[in-house]
Each structure stands twice: as structure tokens, then as C-alpha cells.
Design brief:
The structure holds two protein chains of two kinds. Chain A is an alpha/beta fold. Chain A has helices at residues 40-48, 70-75, 93-100, 107-120, 122-126, 137-149, 167-182, 194-200, 218-221, 225-231; strands at 2-11, 14-24, 29-34, 55-60, 63-64, 78-81, 155-159, 186-191, 203-208, 211-217. Chain A has a six-stranded mixed sheet with strand order 6-7-8-3-9-10, sandwiched between helices. By secondary structure, chain B is mainly alpha-helical. The chains are: A alpha/beta, B mainly alpha.
């Protein structure tokens, strides 16, 4: 579904991604793990069109989308839930969800989806009229994911969805990820919560200083000594 | 006497609010003050003057003409003075501010060349029509100004809160990157905002012509400074702050002239800024930056 080939992204003259190639087959959850500063967020922003790669290509459903602005990429069915959630804090929860459906032409179906999303996330229904900025961290993450779903994406990019959340909420988020995937949406997941991310995904890429250091089926990588030592804290 | 002054104050305040809205909308999406807004407003006034006084056309035509001229100027301003600087690596955020200052100087000089430095009469056919209700005398012109500015403010508020495009503008104003990720073409939204803000300046220009009966090439500067004062006072980027600030400034200026001394008239705006900023550093309706509130 998504193919990234030899992508290099720079901040000024500093390379943040070097020769990155990944594949996200339709229907799967694919995980990207790595330390802070490894380039995970840069990769997500490059795919979503926030950053332009200096070289390499990104293709979605067989068409090249490299360098397209983000508003055109979301129209093709790729939605990014950015790190830090990026809730519109001066707009209400309902308005945030409406903005999620901004690209859709089928207004009636979007309204139905709004009801469905509110059913799935009762806390958002309760707070529909409140400003996005007044929600707690976990609620904001739910809103960010729900808002991305409102665009009816084929591919959902989740950048650190559990960052800074309480353990109970983290479990909630992973349950939601499974549910979204089961409903047919392909997911590319960036996580620091390595174990959980590998459990939920079929394939994992390990990023180190802007390069793919390791990749493989998640259940095999979980047994890999290097992974155990560096990311799971096991000797 | 008091009621007369109240009406004068609200009329003036309505005009101030419309000018200030032009600043606040652009500040909302671009985080800069459009220093050329006062001069665009002045061109709106001149366009209206030419249509009404020179061509003798009716007032609605003057509004349409002023809107067309100022909207086009807004489009050119964004396309040639702002967009080339946006997102360019190494270009400071202040570059676009300086760029608008350049445009404002250029426009003021163009106006001087075209219209000279003197006053131009802005004749409205019903300038002398007034009603007397009890002790109060109201001019038809005042009623019109009041009506137009209220309609414009209400229309803008409704548009921002209810429509898809209005919400997209608010999203763009809050966070450019997020709005883009949600599918908003932020470049187009920024252009639209500068055009709408400029067109509001055009309307305000005609209103000023109607209210004061004369215009010159300096009104851009004086009105621009007051517009700036209002948005600092009301809260940068706040639509309701601009409306409230405009009305408060119009009323206080009017009452200072009526009951105090006209010499202090122009000092009011700036004394008010100092007081407000001491008490509420973000202005009346100012919002903390989004990040700081997480």
C-alpha cells in the first residue's frame, strides 16, 4: 500500500533520514521503533507531506506522492496523528472532529461517522461542546485519533500515540489500534513503547540515527538479542 | 447631549472595529501585523470618494468599488510581498513584517502622487438628513455606518463559527501544520484571509469618508495606528477583542472630546494600551499560545 524508497530528508544541511526504505502492505499494522532523535517523527512527517525529502520516493497505492503538500496527501487517504496530538485547542471537540472530515465530499456519511466516532469514544460525546484545549492528555489523544478517522483514511500514521499517558490509558490506546486495524484500516505506528508496539504489529523496523538498523517480522524481532538488550531492557 | 455622544461614540467605534478586524484576521493566520493595512484602507476611501464625489454614483456602488480595489490590493500584497518570504529557509519571521512596511510606504507615496496631499471632499447625498427623537439628533449617515459595521461584524462572527471555510480559517490561524494535515490548503486560506481583511479595510475606508466628509493621504497612518492600538488592547488575533476594543476606543474618544479636552483625543488609545497591558498583558480577549496551555 505504502512504499518508501531510498528517502533522505534534511534539516538544513543536517541529514535526518538516510536511505530509508520501508513497505506497508495493506491491512497490516507496521511498527517503527527507535530512540529519541532516530528520525521516527521525521519519517512520518515526510510521508505525510509536512517535510519534503531531498531524494527518494514515497508511493501510495501505486502512485507517487513524494513532495506533495500535506493537504493533498490526506485527500488520497493518508492521515497523520502527529506527535504531541496537535489538537485545535481553541476549537470545540465537535469542531475538531468536523475539521477531521474537512476533505470529505459525502457530508451525510461524514455525519454518520461522527455519530459512530462519538459512540466509540463516549468521553468525546460528553465533551463535544468543550474546547479541545480543556481535555486531559489521554482524552486529547483519543480526539486526535478520532479526528484522523473522520477523514476515512486508508492508511493511518500514528506518531507516538501513548507518549506521556498513564498505563491504563496506554492499554486503552493499544486496544483502539487493534480495533481500527480490525475494521480494515492499515496502520503505521511509531512507538517508544517497544514491547506493545511489536505485539500489535506484524512487522517492525528499527531506526537508528536516521537509518534502518534492523527489520523483520515483529514476533521474530522480539526474540532478537539486540532488541532485547537495547529496547526491552532484558539482558 | 449624553445620548448624542453615545451615538457618535458607537458610530466611530464601529469603524474602528472594522479596521481592527482587518489587522486581527491577518495576525491570526500569519502572526505578523500587516503594516500596509492602513494604506489599503486609505485606497478604499479614495476609491469610494472617486465613485461618489467624482462620478456621482450611488453609495452601494462606492462600497462595491472600494471592496474590489482593496481586495485586489490584498491579493497582490499576499502574492508578491508575503508569499515569497514564507517558509524560506533563513528568512526571519520579521522579514514579512518589514515587507509590509515597505508596501505601506510605497502605497502612501502612490496616493500622494495620484491624489496630492490635500483634503478631498467625500460627498454623500444625504449628509444633512437627520431625525430628532426627543432630545436626540441622529444623522442618517450615522445610522448607516452603524448598521453596516454591525452587519459586517455579525456576518464575520457567524462565518467564522458556523461555516466550513470559517472553521478552516480558525484552524489555520491556530496551527498551520495541523490545518494542512487535516486537508486545508493553507496557502489558499492565507490568501483568502488577506483578501477578506483588505476588503474590510475598503469598507471601513468608505465609512470613514461618510463619517468625516473628507479624506487625505494621511488617514491610513492615523487610522492604522489606532487599529494597532485596538488589537493590542483587545488581544492580538482575537476577533471579539477587535470588536470590543474598537467600540471602547470610539466611545472613550468621543466622551473625552465632549466632556474633557479635544487635545487629548488621540492620546486615549495609547493610554488605554498602557493600562490594559499592565493589568492584562495579553489584552482583553488575549489567548495564551496553544502550546503553553497543554
Amino acid at each position: 500500500m505504502l512504499e518508501v524508497r531510498g528517502v533522505e530528508t534534511y534539516y538544513g544541511n543536517i541529514p535526518a533520514l538516510r536511505e530509508i526504505s520501508i513497505d506497508v502492505p495493506g491491512g497490516n499494522v507496521i511498527a517503527i521503533i527507535g530512540a529519541n532523535g532516530a528520525g521516527k517523527t521525521t519519517l512520518m512527517k515526510t510521508i505525510a507531506g509536512v517535510l519534503r525529502p531531498r531524494s527518494g520516493t514515497v508511493s501510495f497505492l501505486g502512485e507517487e506522492i513524494t513532495g506533495l503538500p500535506s493537504h493533498k496527501i490526506v485527500r488520497r487517504g493518508v492521515a497523520l496523528v502527529p506527535e504531541g496530538r496537535a489538537i485545535l485547542s481553541r476549537m470545540t471537540v465537535r469542531e475538531n472532529l468536523e475539521m477531521g472530515a474537512f476533505t470529505r465530499r459525502d457530508a451525510k456519511k461524514a455525519l454518520l461517522d461522527m455519530d459512530r466516532v462519538m459512540e466509540r469514544f463516549p468521553v468525546l460525546k460528553e465533551r463535544a461542546g468543550q474546547l479541545g484545549g480543556s481535555l486531559s492528555g489521554g482524552e486529547q489523544q483519543m480526539l486526535a485519533i478520532a479526528r484522523a478517522l473522520m477523514s476515512a483514511p486508508k492508511l493511518l500514521l500514528l506518531d507516538e500515540p501513548t507518549l506521556g499517558l498513564a498505563p491504563l490509558v496506554v492499554a486503552d490506546i493499544f486496544a483502539i489500534i487493534r480495533e481500527i486495524n480490525a475494521a480494515g484500516t492499515t496502520i503505521l505506528l511509531v512507538e517508544q513503547n517497544v514491547k506493545q508496539a511489536m505485539k500489535v504489529s506484524s512487522y517492525t523496523y528499527v531506526l537508528e540515527t536516521g537509518k534502518i538498523a534492523l527489520s523483520g517480522p515483529s514476533n521474530e524481532l522480539l526474540q532478537e538479542p539486540r532488541i532485547k538488550a537495547s529496547y526491552l531492557g532484558q539482558a | 447631549m449624553f445620548l448624542d455622544q453615545l451615538i457618535n461614540g458607537i458610530t466611530l467605534g464601529g469603524i474602528y472595529a472594522i479596521v481592527a478586524l482587518g489587522y486581527t484576521l491577518v495576525f491570526g493566520v500569519l502572526d505578523i501585523i500587516n503594516m500596509a493595512h492602513g494604506e489599503i484602507f486609505m485606497f478604499g476611501a479614495f476609491a469610494g470618494m472617486l465613485i461618489v464625489s467624482k462620478a456621482g454614483a450611488p453609495l452601494p456602488v462606492a462600497f462595491l468599488g472600494a471592496i474590489a480595489v482593496t481586495a485586489a490590493m490584498g491579493l497582490l500584497l499576499e502574492r508578491f510581498a508575503l508569499r515569497p518570504l514564507r517558509g524560506r529557509p533563513g528568512a526571519s519571521h520579521l522579514a514579512s513584517l518589514i515587507s509590509t512596511i515597505g508596501v505601506s510606504i510605497l502605497l502612501e507615496n502612490v496616493a500622494h502622487k495620484l491624489f496630492g496631499a490635500g483634503n478631498h471632499l467625500f460627498e454623500t447625498p444625504f449628509a444633512e438628513i437627520s431625525f430628532t427623537v426627543g432630545p436626540v439628533t441622529i444623522y442618517l449617515v450615522q445610522l448607516l455606518i452603524l448598521l453596516i459595521s454591525l452587519l459586517l461584524m455579525a456576518g464575520l462572527a457567524l462565518w467564522l463559527s458556523r461555516t466550513r471555510a470559517g472553521k478552516a480559517l480558525r484552524a489555520t490561524a491556530e496551527n498551520l501544520e495541523t490545518a494542512g494535515l487535516l486537508g486545508v490548503d493553507t496557502n489558499r486560506m492565507i490568501t483568502a484571509t488577506v483578501v477578506i481583511a483588505s476588503a474590510m479595510g475598503g469598507v471601513a475606508g468608505v465609512l470613514v469618508g461618510m463619517a468625516f466628509n473628507y479624506i487625505n493621504n494621511q488617514i491610513g497612518l492615523s487610522m492604522g495606528l489606532k487599529g494597532l492600538a485596538i488589537i493590542i488592547f483587545g488581544g492580538m488575533g482575537s476577533v471579539y477583542g477587535a470588536m470590543a476594543g474598537g467600540l471602547i476606543l470610539g466611545l472613550s474618544e468621543t466622551f473625552v472630546v465632549a466632556y474633557g479636552s479635544s487635545g487629548y483625543r488621540d492620546a486615549i488609545a495609547f493610554v488605554a494600551i498602557i493600562v490594559i497591558l499592565l493589568v492584562k498583558p495579553r489584552g482583553l480577549f488575549g489567548q495564551a499560545p496553544a502550546e503553553a496551555r497543554r
